[in-house]
Amino acid sequence: MDNKSFWSLLIIIFCAFQGILGQTCPQSCVRCVVDGLGDVTDVTCSDSRAFQLIPKTVQHLVFQNGSLPNGIVKDFLFLGISELESIEITNYHLKELWGAFLLNCTDLKIMDFSNNEIHSIMKSNFKGPVALEILNLEKNHINLTTDNVFENLGFLKKLHLGNNLIQTLTHNTFEGLINLQILDLSRNKISYMDGHTFQSLSKVKNINLSYNRIRNIPSGLFNGLSNLKMLQLSHNTISTISDNAFVQAGVITLDLSTNQLTKIPTEMLQQISGNKTEVLLQRNNIRMLQKNSLSNIELKLLNLASNGMDMVENDATYNCKIKYLNMRQNMLTTLPETMLIYLNSVIIPQVFLSTNPFVCDCDLIWLGKFLYQKSWKNIPKCSKPIELSRLNIVDYYNQYDTSCLTTTEEITTPFSTSTSRDLSPSSTNTQHDNTTSQPISSSQRQTTPSPTDSVNTKNNTSC
């Protein structure tokens, strides 16, 4: 046999050999990938009968939109498939996971059993895949009732448990997850967490606890989580936060929106204070900014929108450095002039005040002046008196500033040529609050004469 014939025969044998191996892919599967050596590496199926015909060389296995008998994944189902790197069984009506069904899969990195009906998981379920890095069990019926379930998953980086029925988290729930970075527990029924629930998650960066039934944040819950960057706690019923819940926590973004907080959690904000930190408190029940409630706090953003807030006390912002302060869509009718100290202390601060029912009177003239001098954008509008509702606060300042002079000199205003009222702190004839008094809330506020009111008064008394 000459060389040419020899190589031709060898090619024929190789192709035949490759074809034989290629036939090991289950015929009922919708997709199979064969590598250059003829080994089946990727399989996608829906028919459960293919479980018994899976090639031993498979590295990536997908079963979708089907079902197993009684929804049970039995012991040692994947025994012998030692090269498996990822497995996805989704929308497959799985109900139970028996024992060590992945016992021999020591190279497995990704396990996705989402969109099923699994009601419990056990420690033995993860006895084999010790190298697992991503575990997705979201959209099941799981309630974590057994401690140390994930103890063998020391390499796990992402754990998705959202949309389940989890109610309680204890100090042993996440024991052993020393490399976990992302933890999703959103849309469960969590109502209780002890103070050491997350103590073993020293490398965690993102925890999502939104859409649960959490009522309070206990002391120590997030202590020492120096790598934690994002914490999502929105859409719960949180009304109290322990003063010591965030000691040495490295939170950069904290979402506490849509809860039931009634006051600013000052101690907590001081613990996570930093020029890159963003805190979302919109849609709570914080009706008042009390004195010193934002003291010694430095933030990039504090969102207080949509709280029904109608009062800001003097010195509420004392010694605070908040670059972006969002107070939109509240019930504020005035602001204390002591806020000027805060506004002038922050480099290029942005305070968002639109959609508040501001009363444009002499108490608020300082704000119009400040906004005018700083060429502010998003200038809030006057709500009352009705004659000024067409104006924003800067327009009001520009047109009526002279009506609010705080001396007893005789002045000429667009509305009168009479002696103005003395609005100084020492005046005994005025009913107007000075800048160090407590502001009046919208529910208690008496009507204060505005420049336009003087047009209709008998004595033409100016503001």
From TrEMBL:
GO biological process: monoatomic ion transmembrane transport
Protein localization: Cell membrane
Keyword set, alphabetical order: Cell membrane, Disulfide bond, Ion channel, Ion transport, Leucine-rich repeat, Membrane, Repeat, Signal, Transmembrane, Transmembrane helix, Transport
Cleaved signal peptide residues: 1-22
Location, primary (coarse class): membrane
Comp. bias regions, Polar residues: 453-463
GO CC terms, sorted: plasma membrane
Bilayer disposition of the protein: Single-pass membrane protein
Domain of life: Eukaryota
Region annotated Disordered, chain positions: 415-463
InterPro entries documented for this protein: KCNMA1_auxiliary, Leu-rich_rpt, Leu-rich_rpt_typical-subtyp, LRR_dom_sf
Low complexity compositional bias, start-end: 415-428, 435-452
SUPFAM superfamilies to which the protein is assigned, alphabetical: L domain-like
Name of the protein this chain belongs to: Uncharacterized protein
Species: Mytilus edulis (Blue mussel)
Organism placement in taxonomy: Eukaryota, Metazoa, Spiralia, Lophotrochozoa, Mollusca
